[in-house]
């Protein structure tokens, strides 16, 4: 294998409205259970743009980017970092990893809520300090620490397909896990952005009998056809479906837009015993009004999803590997930029609002 350099080029974010600083960051000396990954591709998530524009606070200075894949360049001494199948990772392995590293021993971790670990280390969200500075995807290398969930990737699958797996795709896998068994069930996806389109495709993959997608934007809604949508529902027509007959209602509703009006409408679209999963509300909104009697008599279940657990990452990789030719998943990435053009890349993303742009540090 090629020897590692002493440092890595990284795009450091300091503050909204300020250009990124291209700096060289020293690579750490690895400890047991750690690894250095050469970044192949980092897709820019909507939350990254919110941080850059000031809508979302992030510790600074920092290296943003949490949707990334790459190749193991070095592993620490002693007991090596293992993938989720329990196999030791070696230089040359193409991998994806979880958005966060968890301790495995605190109460949330012991309860299967590792994404809420009390000692969480979140990639693309860490202040640039200490030995774990290379923690984001907008850099040539990333430092993986103990407690990171890692999955090997098929070398034949495009980076444009796999790039979003560390956030968007795995979050959708968590949403569908919360929805329960959807085989032969009717599913409604609210929101036709990257999450919603992925959810429509994944619902089809999991055997849903009918997948509907609802959105306010007609262009985004039309795009859902290619991702498995059997029915397109313009938002202005959604209220007409309230209190449906069982053959027209939905057994699971996945709310991925974070829209209070949609959350309030959703219970009236559920079949008896249906499940409403909320995952789009990651910013403060107005309070919503729900009818508790409707929920009780309808035997409805409401679940919240934020981030995901390692099994969801495995499911997401499996979905992308099996379905990248069935659905146009590579089309999420609409433009690609080298790391040195990070300011132009972000300006393009803010101006055109694509599903994703990709940064390829090696180009």
Automatic annotation (TrEMBL):
UniProt keyword terms in alphabetical order: Metal-binding, NAD, Oxidoreductase, Zinc
Assigned GO CC terms: cytoplasm
Required cofactor names: Zn(2+)
The UniProt record lists the keyword NAD: yes
Domain of life: Bacteria
Record-linked InterPro entries: ADH-like_C, ADH-like_N, ADH_phosphonate_catab-assoc, GroES-like_sf, NAD(P)-bd_dom_sf
Keyword NAD: yes
Documented EC number(s): 1.1.1.1
GO molecular function, one term: alcohol dehydrogenase (NAD+) activity
Boundaries of every Alcohol dehydrogenase-like C-terminal domain copy: 194-321
CDD domains xref list: MDR_TM0436_like
Residue ranges of domain Alcohol dehydrogenase-like N-terminal in the record: 32-145
Pfam families, A to Z: ADH_N, ADH_zinc_N
Family classification: Belongs to the zinc-containing alcohol dehydrogenase family.
PANTHER family per UniProt: ALCOHOL DEHYDROGENASE 1-RELATED (PTHR42940:SF3)
Listed name of the protein: alcohol dehydrogenase
């Amino acid at each position: 294998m090629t020897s590692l350099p002493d440092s890595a080029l990284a795009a450091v974010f300091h503050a909204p409205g300020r250009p990124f600083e291209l700096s060289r960051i020293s690579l750490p000396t690895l400890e047991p259970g750690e690894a250095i990954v050469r970044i192949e591709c980092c897709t820019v998530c909507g939350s990254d743009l919110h941080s850059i524009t000031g809508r979302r606070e992030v510790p600074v200075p920092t290296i943003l980017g949490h949707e990334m894949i790459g190749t193991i360049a070095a592993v620490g001494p002693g007991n090596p970092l293992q993938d989720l199948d329990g196999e030791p990772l070696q230089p040359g392995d193409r991998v994806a990893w979880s958005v966060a590293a968890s301790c495995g021993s605190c109460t949330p971790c012991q309860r299967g809520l590792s994404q809420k670990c009390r000692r969480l280390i979140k990639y693309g969200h860490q202040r640039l300090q200490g030995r774990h500075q290379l923690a984001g995807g907008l850099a040539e290398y990333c430092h993986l620490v103990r407690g990171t969930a890692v999955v090997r990737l098929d070398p034949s699958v495009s980076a444009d397909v796999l790039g979003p797996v560390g956030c968007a795709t795995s979050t959708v896998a968590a949403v569908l896990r919360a929805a329960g068994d959807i085989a032969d069930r009717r599913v409604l996806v609210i929101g036709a952005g990257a999450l919603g389109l992925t959810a429509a495709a994944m619902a089809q993959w999991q055997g849903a009998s009918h997948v509907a997608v609802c959105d306010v934007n007609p262009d985004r809604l039309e795009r859902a056809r290619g991702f498995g949508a059997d029915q397109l529902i313009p938002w202005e027509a959604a209220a007409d479906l309230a209190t449906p007959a069982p053959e027209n209602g939905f057994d699971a509703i996945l709310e991925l837009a974070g829209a209070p009006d949609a959350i309030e409408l959703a219970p009236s679209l559920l079949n008896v015993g249906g499940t409403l999963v909320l995952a789009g509300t990651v910013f403060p909104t107005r309070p919503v009004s729900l009818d508790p009697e409707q929920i009780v008599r309808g035997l409805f279940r409401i679940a919240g999803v934020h981030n995901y657990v390692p099994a969801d990452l495995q499911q997401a990789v499996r979905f992308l590997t099996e379905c990248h030719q069935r659905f146009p998943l590579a089309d999420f990435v609409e433009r690609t930029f080298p790391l040195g053009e990070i300011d132009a890349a972000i300006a393009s993303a803010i101006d055109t609002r694509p599903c994703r742009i990709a940064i390829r540090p090696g180009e």
